[in-house]
UniProtKB/TrEMBL annotation:
<keyword id="KW-0472">Membrane</keyword>
<dbReference type="GO" id="GO:0005524">
    <property type="term" value="F:ATP binding"/>
</dbReference>
<protein>
    <submittedName>
        <fullName>Methionine ABC transporter ATP-binding protein</fullName>
    </submittedName>
</protein>
<keyword id="KW-1278">Translocase</keyword>
<keyword id="KW-0029">Amino-acid transport</keyword>
<feature type="domain" description="ABC transporter">
    <location>
        <begin position="4"/>
        <end position="234"/>
    </location>
</feature>
<dbReference type="GO" id="GO:0016887">
    <property type="term" value="F:ATP hydrolysis activity"/>
</dbReference>
<dbReference type="GO" id="GO:0005886">
    <property type="term" value="C:plasma membrane"/>
</dbReference>
<dbReference type="GO" id="GO:0006865">
    <property type="term" value="P:amino acid transport"/>
</dbReference>
<keyword id="KW-0067">ATP-binding</keyword>
<keyword id="KW-0547">Nucleotide-binding</keyword>
<keyword id="KW-1003">Cell membrane</keyword>
<comment type="similarity">
    <text>Belongs to the ABC transporter superfamily.</text>
</comment>
<keyword id="KW-0813">Transport</keyword>
Length: 234
C-alpha cells in the first residue's frame, strides 16, 4: 500500500545560463507507515525531489500520486488540501521569530480553522510530546538548535498530516542532538502512524532510522532497497 508514488517524474529548471535537469525519470513508491530515506551528494536533486512531492515545485515530466490521486490535474484548492496532509521540516527550522513557541505551533491549526482555545490546547499537547511544554512562552531565538527543531516538528505534525517530509532536518545539529531529534522522528512515526521521508547527505541518519533508502545520483535514482541490503558490508 503506497502513500506516495512518483511516476516518470522529471524536473527541468530554465535558467539564464540554460536548462538544468534536476530530476530525471524518478520512479518510486513510498509505503504507508515506513521511514524512507533519500541520500545523495549536494546538488544531486534531493531538495527538488521533496519539493516536488508537495508541489512546491511542479514536475516538468511525469507526476506525483498521493494516495493514488495524481496531482497534475488538480485545482489550486485541491493541491492545498493534499498539502495539509504533508508536514515539512527544514535544516534551518523556519520558525516565526516574532511569535513564542506556543503560537508557532498554533499557527497551522489557526490557518486550518481550528478555534483558538482548541488550537492552544492541541499545541500544548504537542509541546508536551516534544518535551518543551515548560518553554511555551519562549521565543525561537531563546532556544538551542535542537529545541527549535523540536518546535518545528510539533508544528509540522499539529494538523495530523499523513506524511512528514524532512529536508536535511539534522544537518545543522551536533551529533548528540541529531540522535535525539532522530529518536523523536521515529517516535512520531510509531505513535502517530505518520509516514516519514528523510532527505540527507549523512549515512548515519539513514542507518539509524530508515526502513528503506534510495540513493540519488546526478538527478537519477541509482538504487532502492532495504537499508541493510543497500549498505551491507560485502
Ligand atoms: P540537493 O538537495 O541534492 O543538494 P537540489 O535539489 O537542491 O539538490 O538541486 C539539484 C540541482 O538543481 C542543482 O544543480 C541545483 O543547482 C538545481 N536547482 C535547484 N533548484 C533550482 C532552481 N530553483 N533554479 C535553478 N536550478 C535549481
Ligand atoms: P538545498 O541544498 O536545501 O536545496 P539550496 O541552498 O541549494 O538548499 O537552495 C535553496 C533555494 O534556492 C531553494 O529554493 C532552491 O530551489 C533554490 N536554488 C538552488 N539552486 C539554485 C540555482 N542554481 N538557481 C536558482 N535557485 C536555486
Amino acid at each position: 500500500d503506497s502513500i506516495v508514488s512518483l511516476k516518470g517524474m522529471g524536473k527541468v529548471f530554465h535558467t539564464k545560463n540554460g536548462d538544468v535537469k534536476a530530476l530525471d525519470n524518478i520512479n518510486l513508491d513510498i509505503n504507508r507507515g515506513e521511514i524512507f530515506g533519500i541520500i545523495g551528494l549536494s546538488g544531486a536533486g534531493k531538495s527538488t525531489l521533496v519539493r516536488c512531492i508537495n508541489y512546491l515545485e511542479i514536475p516538468t515530466e511525469g507526476d506525483v500520486f498521493f494516495e493514488g490521486k495524481g496531482l497534475k490535474g488538480m485545482s489550486e484548492l485541491q493541491i492545498r488540501r493534499v498539502r495539509r496532509d504533508m508536514g515539512m521540516i527544514f535544516q534551518q527550522f523556519n520558525l516565526l521569530s516574532q511569535r513564542n513557541i506556543l503560537d508557532n505551533v498554533c499557527f497551522p491549526l489557526e490557518i486550518s480553522g481550528v478555534p483558538k482555545p482548541k488550537a492552544r490546547q492541541r499545541a500544548k499537547e504537542l509541546l508536551n510530546l516534544v518535551g518543551l511544554l515548560d518553554r511555551e512562552k519562549a521565543y525561537p531565538a531563546q532556544l538551542s538548535g535542537g529545541q527549535k527543531q523540536r518546535v518545528a516538528i510539533a508544528r509540522a505534525v499539529a494538523t495530523n498530516p499523513k506524511l512528514l517530509l524532512c529536508d536535511e532536518a539534522t544537518s545543522a545539529l551536533d551529533p548528540n542532538t541529531t540522535g535525539q531529534i532522530l529518536d523523536l522522528i521515529k517516535d512520531i512515526n510509531k505513535k502517530m502512524g505518520i509516514t516519514v521521508i528523510v532527505i540527507t547527505h549523512e549515512m548515519k541518519v539513514i542507518e539509524s532510522i530508515c526502513d528503506r533508502v534510495a540513493i540519488i545520483e546526478n538527478s537519477k535514482i541509482a538504487e532502492v532497497g532495504k537499508v541493510e541490503d543497500i549498505f551491507a558490508d560485502p
